[in-house]
Every structure is written in structure tokens, then in C-alpha cells.
Amino acid sequence: MTKRPIKMLPIWIAVSSVIILAGILLFALLGFNHSAERGNNKTFEVEYDVVVDTAENGIESLKDACETAFKASGISYGDYQQAAKIDANTGSETVGGKLIYTFSVGVSDEALAKAKAAVESFANETFEDAQVYADYHVSYNTVFTDAAWRAAIAVAVGLVVALIYVGIRFGVGAALTGLTLTVHDVLVALSLLAILRIPVYTFAPIVVGAVAAFASLFMWVLQCMKMRENFKSAEYGAYSAEEAVEASSKTAEKAIYIAAGALGIVLVIFTVALAIAGSQLGAILLPLVCLFPVGVSVYSSLLFGPALHVPVKTAFDKFNSKHKRRFGKAKADKKKEEKEN
Amino acid sequence: MGKKKSAILITLLTLVIAALCFISTVSFNYGSNGMYTFNSLLRATDKDADLGGVYGAEGYKGGGFAVTYYPEGVITAKEYNDNRGGYADEAEKEEYENSYVAYHGGTLYLEKESVCGGGDEPSEEFQSAFDNTVKLLEDRYARLKKDGAELAVKDDYTVRVFLPKMMDASLVAFTVNSYTGEFSVRYGSNAESAPEILPALRKKTIDDYFKKAYSRVGADGTAYVAMQFTDEGKEVLAEETQNANTMYFMVGDQAAITLSISEAVDSKTLYVSSSAYTGETASIYADVINTVMKLDDAENTLKLSVSDALEFGALYGGNALAALYIAYGICFIAMMAFFFIRYRRLGFVHLYTYLIFTLIMIVCVYGISFLYLSLETFIAFMLVSLLLAASNIVTFEYARKEYAGGKTMASSVKEGYKKCFWHIFDLHVVLAILSFIMYGIGLSNLSLFAFILGLGTVFSGLACLGLNRLTWAAMMSFTPNKGGFCNFKREEVEDDD
Q1: Interface membership of A141 toward B (CB under 8 Å)
Q2: For B102, which of B106, B244, B280, B348 could close a Cys bridge (C-beta 3.0–4.6 Å)?
Q3: Residue A27 CA to chain centroid, in angstroms?
Q4: Which helix (H) or strand (E) covers residue B52, if one does?
Q5: So what's the ipTM on this one?
């Protein structure tokens, strides 16, 4: 007989802990995979002047020469851009521009040097009196860390305040479970990003964390609503905390699956559209990695959350009934005293 | 709601939607030979560095600018060859050639004297000064807090910086952020020859006289750079500025800020305004001073020259924005298909509500100065679109349940809304709290993402609980078969007979 998910809290804790610990370990050792970031790369840059700019098919033939040179050198680029030159002081456009091809850092300097020689030789033969310079560069990006730690504080403070509202409307127990779940979801989503080594931009973990907080809170509030509605009914009055949470969780299942499914479809459509448009890898993968928080929030709201909420609800129910009894007893004692007097 | 009122309301809403749709999405040329261009709101909205699109006749919104900073003594192969070619005399040419050493396969040329200390490799002093300079630049560009700003060390000894075009003062930032050296104040008629008045004594530093610079924008829109001095600084200034003259706030040997004064300075804070200042540029000037004040060893930095700027289009590629619009269109059609299949003509109610919600969001992104289009904007918008769709489904389902129980349609809608009001209200309040707090604390991307989420959540709540109900009532008044209109069915009751 299969064990009911609501009774499997130790297993859910173990699964989440393993993922989070592995994520922290990998993050500490390797960080996130920021290889999609534009900054860490080698670039092959071809600077051209007005002669090339005004020649018929000048730029196009230069591009073709670059493509041929790369093929001959056995290298392929990840990104291409054409930039116009402007005066940094006045902002006015000046003549000429640059063709910029981006390669991974691992591409050899020898291959790039070979391509450089081929492109310069082509330019000298093709364009009379033109100044064409081909160069290759290596760049290492600086990560502005301010945004990352401010994002962590923003998500944490936002969650605490939002859950205070949840506490007021749905009870302190629901808020405590919600806080645990949202923190859990953010950590698990980021851990998955670190473990799976998906190449992303520097800001992607911030977006993933924020989506995780939003999706997790959304799903948990759905659960809380269902619980508030269901627990009022007489049928639920006869249930133990475990049975009540389990039964209520089942009524929320459909809504959670539909919401997560719709969001998943939207994110996949965006990923496919960006891929078809030939966008950069980091851009294509950003909507895709946002599927992590959606998946994690489904797991936590349907499996981990209800299982975690059972002991919390049991403890709060006990506390409430004790206080009710005490208040009731105190009231009765007072009435008795008044009567006696 | 009466039929007349409903007809008027639906007509008005249709007109509003049509007008907003038109100004939000349609661009065209007009005038003789298409001289003028009408730009839709989506075209006119700022785009981040990753996305981009045409604007006006020849304009472009999105993308950004990049420059490279070259430390003194470090030049490009092009500059080296140009200089070398300028020598007619062979001996002079040879001397020039011998004064430089090729670096990184001839990509850069390093001056032997100033960079390599006479040898062929960059000296330790140069390396240390370069590291210090990079630290200074990092601090300056980090303070801009701009989405898309990038800084990379290129070929070991140059620095490439990229700023998005939507930042109005990106070119100013490139130039002003190249100022390196210590902060000082000079007073006289010419920045180069004016004597230094702060720091006043050799045994003291500028920190003893000057606290910090900051920017302010007045109610009339005038931007200021405020220079805050210590008591000691104020005393020195009062003594030194007796005659009408000019104060030069120097970073290294560059006058970052100049201030003409007609009487002795008798204030701890000086507010400097200029016609060239905007809120953004004033902040850049203030940070240029603050960053050198903060740097431990500001003297040990390198003089920088700025290359010509390069103008880039959308970094995600020219088709990325169109792809996002198409993706949105597909999602929209899928959503409407679901609503029309499940709720038949009630789908029109959602269509009207959703279109108004979307168009208001477009107007807000266009109209609110710090918002712009980016991939994060799209993701946030899709999240709140989903929230609105989910909220509308909840209201429809609650009404469906009531109707199935035997109530009239009007009563079902009323009861359904009554039962789900607090659910929807709570959900929106919780998500709006989270979003607006994230917006308040987060920076750049997160801030934008969170604000769109927050704004969308508020509009979604209003649209679902207010507009949706109104449109529903108006549309339903035309049909006698209200159950059929909404695809709601009565529960079948077993007949005992």
C-alpha cells in the first residue's frame, strides 16, 4: 500500500535538504553558471572606415570574409553585432563602425590570429585606401554584487510582511507554514539552478528567486483560502488536523495544477519564440529557468506544504483549545464568584 | 442593468478599447512623402539594452553604447600604426617603435617607460595602479544602478564599459567617470593655474575639510550637486574666498565641477547648479567625487582616455522584441480559446476586462518614467495576466455553482462574487505587498520586475472585482437565455415519480 503524501514529511524534508545542501555546495564551489553572460568571452572585432562603409556591399563582403576566415580556422562564434561609431563627447555619429563576433573564452588565440590575418589580407586586397583593423580580445566581466544582496533582502522583507497579512487573515499557523514554504521554494529553485549548471545571465538568479517567492506565495494563499472555506463546514469538524489538511489540500489540487500548467505553457512559448528569433542563449534560457520555481511551488504546495502544516495546525489547535478552555474556566469562576457575592 | 444603459456602456468600453488599441499598437507615416511618423505607445516606450525597435523615421529605442578606457601609456594597434606612420624620419620612427612593446598578440601596445618601467612587461606599480583604477570604475558604474550596465576588463589592461541607451546621460557618464586622481578644491580664474585651497595643510587630508557630495532636484526641476563641507572646511573656504572668482572642484587634474562666486562662502553646504545638469548627470558628478573620496589610495590611479563610443542595437538580436510580441499573441489566443470554449459568450466579458487591463498596463509602462520594456517586464506581465485570468475563472466558477443550485443568473453572480470576494481580495493584497516591497528594496531588474508585478496585481484586482462584474452585467442584459450565454447549466434533480 502506498504511503499518503501527508505522512511523508521526513521524506520531503530529506529531499529538499539534499537539493538545498547540494545547491549551496555547488554555489560555494562554482557559483551559478554565468557562461551565458556577455562579459566573459573572446571577441573578434573588425573596425572599418568610411571607405568600406560607402563601398557597394562593402560591409557585407567584409562579413563574408569573416565567416570564411572563421570556417578556415575551425571556429564558430556565439553572437554577432554590428556597431556604429559615435563621438563619446557629442553623441553624434562618426564614420565607420565595427563588426563584433563573440566567441567563448576557450577559443584558441592561434585560431583567432589566423582569422585576423585572413580578414586583413582580404581587406587590403579588396578595399583600396581603406583602414580595416581586425583584432581579437579577451574580456572578463565584473559582477555588480549590490543588486544580488539587495534582491535577497527585498524578497525576504517582502515575504515576511506579506505573511504577516496571511497571519492576520488565515492564522499564525498558516503564516509560519507559508514562511517556511516560500523560503524553501526560493532556496530549492536557486539550488536547482546551481546544480543543473544551466548557463544564465548574472541577473537570472534574482529573477528566479523573485518568481519563486511570487509563485510560492500565490500557491500557498490558494491552499489557505481552500482551508479557510473547507474548515468552516461541519464535515471537516469531525476530522483530525491531518485528515482536514489532506482533504482540503485535495480540493485545491485542480486550481494549483491549472495555474502552474498555464504558467508553464506561457514560459515554454516565450522560450521557443526567443529561440526561433535567434536570441542569445541567456535570453532563451531565462523563461525556461523560471519553470524551476513554478515546479518547486507545485511540489511544495501539494506535497511538502500540507505535510508540514499538519504538525503546525495540530500545535495551534491544541494551543487554541487550551486557551479557550482557560478563558472559559476563568469566565465560569468569575460568574460563580459573582453569584456567591 | 437596463438594456439602454448596457448598450451605452458596452459602446463606450468598445470605443475606449479601440482607441487605446490604436494608439498603443499602430504606427504609421503621414504628411507629404511620409515626412512625419506617428509612433505607437509600444514603439515610443523605452527599451532596455537587450531589446530594441525602430522609433520615428530613423530613430531606434533600445540597445546601448560602449566605450573602452585606455590607461595612459596603453594604446590600440590602430593608434600605434597611425602614430608610427606619421614619422617621416626613419630614426624617429625607430625610436617610437622601440618605446612601445606589443601586448596580447599586438592588440595593444604598452609604453615601455610609463607602463613597463623600462622593461618589456607591465611593472608591478602599473599593475597596482591599474587594479586601483578598475576598483574606482567599478564603484562608479555600480552606483549608477542601471539595468544592463556592464564593466569588463579587456585584454588585461583596458576597461570596456557598456551602458543602455535608455539612460539619458550615458555619454556624460563615460566622460566624467574617466576622471581619476585625488579630490581637491582650487580657487582662481583658471582651473589649471588656480591655487589649491583644500586640502589646506599638508598634514591634513581632504576628509578633514569635505564630507560628501550628493545630488538634489528642486521642485522647479533644477538639478543641483550639493557639496557638503566640515566645520573646518567651511572656515577655510570663508577665509580663502574673499574675492569674486571661481571655485574648481578637481578630480585629479580635471575640473569636475566649477562654481562662480561673488562673495565669501559662508555655508557648510554649497549647491551647484548648471544648465547642463539633470537629475541623472548631477548624481554622476556627485558620485565621481564620492568615489575618489572613498577610495583608499586615490592618488595611485591611472589617467584614462576614452575611445570613440560604439552604438549597439538590441543585444538579444533584432528579432527578439517581435518574438516576444508573437509569444504574447499566442498566449492571448490560447487564453481566449479556453474562455470561449468553457464559458461561451461569457468569454467576451473576460476579453473586455483583459484588454482594458492590458492597455492600461501599456499606458503605464509608457507613461511612468522609470518603466521600460525588457524580458523581465514581459515575464512579470505574463504572471499578472495569469493572475487576472485565474481570478476571473474563480468568479465565473463560483457563479456557475450558484446557478447550478437553482438560483437566477443575477442572484448567482451576486452570490458568487460575495463568496469569492475575500479570496480574490486576499490573494491580490498578499501579492501586491510582496511586489511593492521588493520594488522598494530591490535594484534595477528586480525593481522593474517587482513594480510591474505590483502594478499589475492592483489592476488585476480592480479589473476582476469591479470591471469584470460591470461588463458581465451589461453584456448579459441583452440575452434572454442567460444560462446559455455563460454556458452554465442547472444541476439535474432526480424525479421521484
Answers
A1: yes
A2: B106
A3: 15
A4: strand B52-55
A5: 0.84
A145: confidence class by pLDDT, cuts 50, 70, 90: confident
CB pair distance less than 8 Å for A154 and B330: no
The gap between the terminal CA atoms of chain B, to the nearest Å, is: 40
| Superfamily (CATH) of domain B3-27+317-486 | Multidrug efflux transporter AcrB transmembrane domain (1.20.1640.10)
B386 in contact with A at a CB cutoff of 8 Å?
yes
Residue A220: pLDDT band (50, 70, 90) is: very high
A89/B171 Cβ within 8 A = yes
Asked whether residue B414 carries a pLDDT value surpassing 70, the answer given is: yes
Nearest-10 Cα torsion for B367, B373, B377, B382: 90
Whether the CB of A266 is below 8 Å from some CB of chain B: the reply is: yes
Give residue-wise pLDDT tens across range B119-141: 889 999 999 999 999 999 999 99
The alpha-carbon gap from B222 to the nearest alpha carbon of chain A, in Å, equals: 22
Question: A161 to chain B: which residues are within 8 Å by CB?
Answer: 433-434, 437
* Residue-level pLDDT at B495: 56
Q: Which residues of B touch A270 (CB under 8 A)?
A: 324, 327, 378-379, 382
For residue B194, give how far its alpha carbon lies from the nearest alpha carbon of chain A (Å): 25
Q: Tell me which residues of chain B, numbers 94 to 153, contact chain A at a CB-CB cutoff of 8 Å.
A: 104-105, 107, 134, 138, 141-142, 145, 149-153
Alpha carbon of A324: minimum distance to chain B alpha carbons (Å): 27
Q: What is the pTM of this model?
A: 0.87
B331 with A265: Cβ contact below 8 A: yes
Q: How confident is the model at residue A202 (pLDDT cuts 50, 70, 90)?
A: confident
User: Edge to edge, what strands does the sheet with B74-76 contain?
Assistant: B74-76, B108-111, B100-103
Cell of A236: 471537516
DSSP three-state, residue B264: coil
Over 60: is that where the pLDDT of B496 sits? no
Residue in chain A closest to B322 (alpha carbons) equals A277
CB contact under 8 A, A139 and B449: no
User: Per-residue pLDDT tens for A4-60?
Assistant: 888 889 999 999 999 999 999 999 998 888 877 766 789 999 999 888 888 888 999
Choose from A116, A208, A218 for mutation: most chain B CBs within 10 A. Answer: A218
Q: Are B42 and B25 in contact (CB under 8 A)?
A: yes
Q: Where are the domains of chain B?
A: 3-27+317-486, 64-312
Task: Note if the bond before B195 is cis, omega within 30 degrees.
Answer: no
The predicted-structure confidence for A65-116, as pLDDT tens digits, reads as follows 999 999 999 999 988 899 998 876 777 778 889 999 999 888 999 999 999 9
User: Which residues of B, range 179-238, sit inside 8 Å of A by Cβ?
Assistant: none
Shortest distance, CA A330 to any CA of chain B (angstroms): 35
pLDDT digit string (tens) for B144-185? 989 889 999 999 999 999 999 999 899 999 999 999 999 999
